[in-house]
Amino acid sequence: MTSPTPDDRPDDRSTPELPRWAQRPAGGGATLSEERMATYFGAKWDSVYKRKLAPFLEDPSFVPTWNWSAALALPVWFLYRKLYLPFAVFFLVPNLVFRLLTRSDTALTVEALRKPENEWLLMMNLAVHLSSAIAAGGTANWLLFRRARAASHFVEHQQLPAGEGLSLLRRMGGVNRLATALFVSLSLVIVLAQYRG
After folding, report:
1. Number of domains into which the chain is organized
2. Is residue 2 part of a domain?
3. Tens of pLDDT, residues 83-102
4. 11, 35, 72, 184: which sits with the fewest CB atoms below 10 Å from its CB?
């Protein structure tokens, strides 16, 4: 075997190799067609979700991707996108983990957390919620893809006429503004009550 000549070596200034999912045309079969995904996600399919979910269209296995909205608006983003089980997990688990780590059975008020002797509790609370936000941001796109795929499979197995199938898919997808508004309003009321109490 001969050593490569300078002409045979790759140019360092060439574009980097694309990941596996970007080298192949988007697949996913008929159930994940462009029309079905656009129907499920609505107006944001072309501008946002087509790019965010591209890794999963070819290979649906989990790959960490990032979703700032899910990380920053935890757990509200999951409720907004109709991901009810992840919403429940990201809403309940951080508080449960905090209680297990601190061995505390009672909920601490904002007033109690402000005391100097409870500073470590405040730091632990911050660490648990930061970890939760990172987990939410890293899994949100995959969870959303799985929900869209499940909805598409469900509609396909109903064997409805094309128009009715797309209408059902549109209802299953999209966002849940009412539940999100109610949850945010109730959360604000609870927080204000804690500060006044």
Report:
1. 1
2. no
3. 999 999 999 999 899 889 88
4. 11
